[in-house]
Amino acid sequence: MLPFIQSHPLVFGALLILLDVLAWRIIPAEQQPWRVACRLLLFVLFSAVIIDAGMSPLQPPPWSDPTLNLVATAMEIGWWLFGARTATVVLGLLMPRIGHAGRLLQDVLGALIFLVAVVAAAAYVMQLPVKGLLATSGVMAIVIGLALQSTLSDVFSGIVLNTTKPYQLDDWISIDGTEGKVVEIDWRATHLLTNKGSTVVVPNSVAAKTKVHNFSRPYELTSVSITLKVSTQVRPRRVLEALERAIQSVSALLVNPKPKVAIKGSDLESMEYEISGFIRTGENKTEVSNLMYDLAHRHLEAAGISFTGEDAPQPSSRPRLLLEEVKIFRALSHGEKDELSEAMAPLAFSAGQMVMAVGEVADGLLIVGTGVVSAAVPDSTGKMVEAGRMGPGEIIGEEGIGCDAPSQAQFTALTACVLYRIDREAMSKFLETRVEVRAALIHLRTFREQASRNLLLQKPQAVKKTGFLSWLQKKH
């Protein structure tokens, strides 16, 4: 074998290069150290073969035969490129591609290594005038740079972003009004995954020039806010109190930093109010803001204030207006609702007072008129876990009225509340004559029981209050 190698060094060198390509493809990418070790060993063997054959990568081939000289020149140029490739994979093993900074630095160093290899091969092997080549390449670089001005702007902007690090992978950010999670940062652009499930590609030059809002720093928080206008004829204190109750109804809003209600401005006809708070980064911001609008409307209506401005007209009593909002009574006629509203008795609860305990069999149906009520269910240890918060138009006690079953949840007033009670006798008539009402109560009970089971099956650290926003949005 050794005599063959010594007699045909160029053939054996070509076989080593082919063997390197095959080994790189055969060895799995997960076994990166073995791939690098195999390539390093083959490069050493390749170097030994061409040196033993009398060739040097620092000099042109010594043979005068044109064919032999051409093949030897190709082998020496291949040595420089083979060495550059080996150096880059060794560098990749020593410097893992972790994060945007690691990938960008490794790519830059790899490009420099190959540039040095090409220039060295041109100077030592092909005996080209490197100074003239560099001068010519400089002119070409200017021409190419002008042609690729936009692309180069993105590349250098990517280097600036890597240096300043206004955002990193997995950060939740907003660039030029486009909001999403950073899933990739490459040479040209930043890739954002929006809360709608689509991917937005933002050029790095745009990200470097525009305002970047990073919701993941310094904390894993995302701000959410809504604005609405109310007539200046309504005293601001009434509006602020109603909106404060709306805030307390949204369990998705974090307690710290504390959500707040503020007056943003005023004109002759209306005052502008803003409700703002924070949710965990990655939560469905649109869903939370929609819920905030819905609850603001319900609590303003409960306070007798129109969402659009002036005090809401009161053609009917408050109990009668509530029945229009409760889903289970929507099948009733106007006359039946008028009759039922006359049987609704108001009950006042102070903040912290228990409305209904776990295991209690309700002897009447309760409808939240004003305020906020917290619903909590016991876990396997007996600890109460909040499942949701209830506002105006939602009902309590459907288990007792529907099938004399005990309550599976504990209901506590978070704020001062007024609830309206419909006793069993008043409800029995409609349960017997209206199949829709009984079916709606059964559906509600089944839905809440399933929601409670889903909540308790989750791991404690994975429990998120926003998981049951749909439970809060159901007006019963």
Strand order of the largest sheet: 4-3-2-1-5
Structural class label: alpha+beta
Kindly identify the CATH topology of the largest domain.
Answer: Jelly Rolls
**Number of separate strands:** 16
What's the tally of helices?
16
**What oligomerization state is this entry in?**
single chain
Give the termini separation: 88 Å
Report the C-alpha radius of gyration, rounded: 36 Å
CATH superfamily of the largest domain: Jelly Rolls
Largest sheet: 5 strands, antiparallel
Number of domains as seen in the coordinates: 4
CATH class of the largest domain: Mainly Beta
Q: How would the global form be characterised?
A: elongated
Q: Are there runs of 5+ residues with pLDDT below 50, and where?
A: 309-313, 459-476
The CATH architecture of the largest domain can be given as Sandwich
* Mean pLDDT level: 79
Beta percentage is: 15-25%
In short:
By secondary structure, the chain is of the alpha+beta class.
Structure write-up:
The chain has 476 residues and is an alpha+beta fold. It is built from 16 helices and 16 strands. It folds into 4 domains: 146 residues, no CATH class; 50 residues, SH3 type barrels, CATH 2.30.30.60; 82 residues, Alpha-Beta Plaits (2-Layer Sandwich); 155 residues, Sandwich (Jelly Rolls). Strands 4-3-2-1-5 form a 5-stranded antiparallel beta sheet. A 4-stranded antiparallel beta sheet has the order 9-16-11-14. A hairpin with a 3-residue loop joins strand 2 and strand 3. The longest helix is centred in the first third of the chain and has 29 residues. The chain is elongated. The termini are far apart.
